[in-house]
Structure formats: structure tokens, C-alpha cells
Write a structure and sequence with these properties.
Elements: E1 4-7, E2 11-13, E3 18-24, E4 33-39, E5 46-51, E6 58-60, E7 68-73, E8 78-83, E9 92-99, E10 116-117, E11 121-126
Parallel strand pairs: 2-11
Antiparallel strand pairs: 1-3, 3-8, 4-5, 4-9, 5-6, 7-8, 9-10, 9-11
């Protein structure tokens, strides 16, 4: 497992830009695919974005595609989520997560694929 700590969440206005960071501990960071999930009040936790171990493959929920960008810097043990054109609907607690194995049956979009989770960081987008 890997310990994860998110940061960067804050109160912003609709249309603003924000970058979240997730710092990971341990020497095995590059062995994990990484994902971002979010949970709004009264709603289930949902997939936002994921990135492969090397950073070469990415995936996005339809609701954020074209606005959000996931990236990672394995030398810094950090994964990022850049969020542009923020909407009030993006308001949620954002969590990063690490997955040791990704396959056709255990996908980057499935929260059950991940075995390590951060504590979350609050993003609030006002209108």
C-alpha cells in the first residue's frame, strides 16, 4: 500500500482554474495506477479521472472530459488533477487513490480496483 495526501482544494468561482495535488509515500509509487474520485453531498463517490503507471494512458469521466487533466510525476511521487472551467456541479470532496493492478475485469474506473485512498480535499465552486 501507499499513503496518499491530497491538497489544493479551496473555494473558487465558476469558470476558475484549480490544480489538486496528491503526494504519495513509499518507493513503489510508479508501480501504481492512480485515480481521482469525488463525492458530493448526498451522492455516491464517482470516478473522475485515472492515469496509468507510466502516465502514458489517461481516462476521464464524461462530465469532466475536455476540462480536467490528470498527470503524474513519478520522480516526485505526485499525481495532479488540473481543473479548468469549473462549474458548481464540480463541488465535492476529491480523493486520490492508488491501484496495484488494473485489468479488463478490474478497471481504472472501478473504485474496487484501488487499495489506497487519501483523506480527501474539499473543492467548492460558487456561482
Amino acid at each position: 500500500q501507499v499513503q496518499l495526501v491530497e491538497s489544493g482544494g479551496e473555494l473558487v468561482q465558476a469558470g476558475d482554474f484549480l490544480r489538486l495535488s496528491c503526494a504519495a509515500s513509499g518507493r513503489t509509487f510508479s508501480s501504481y495506477a492512480m485515480g481521482w474520485f469525488r463525492q458530493a453531498p448526498g451522492k455516491e463517490r464517482e470516478f473522475v479521472s485515472g492515469v496509468s503507471r507510466s502516465g502514458g494512458n489517461t481516462d476521464y469521466a464524461d462530465s469532466v472530459k475536455g476540462r480536467f487533466t490528470i498527470s503524474r510525476d513519478n520522480a516526485k511521487n505526485t499525481v495532479y488533477l488540473q481543473m479548468a472551467s469549473l462549474k458548481p456541479e464540480d463541488t465535492a470532496v476529491y480523493y486520490c487513490a492508488a491501484a496495484p493492478l488494473v485489468s479488463r475485469s478490474s478497471t481504472i474506473r472501478d473504485p474496487g480496483t484501488y487499495d489506497s485512498w487519501g483523506q480527501g480535499t474539499q473543492v467548492t465552486v460558487s456561482s
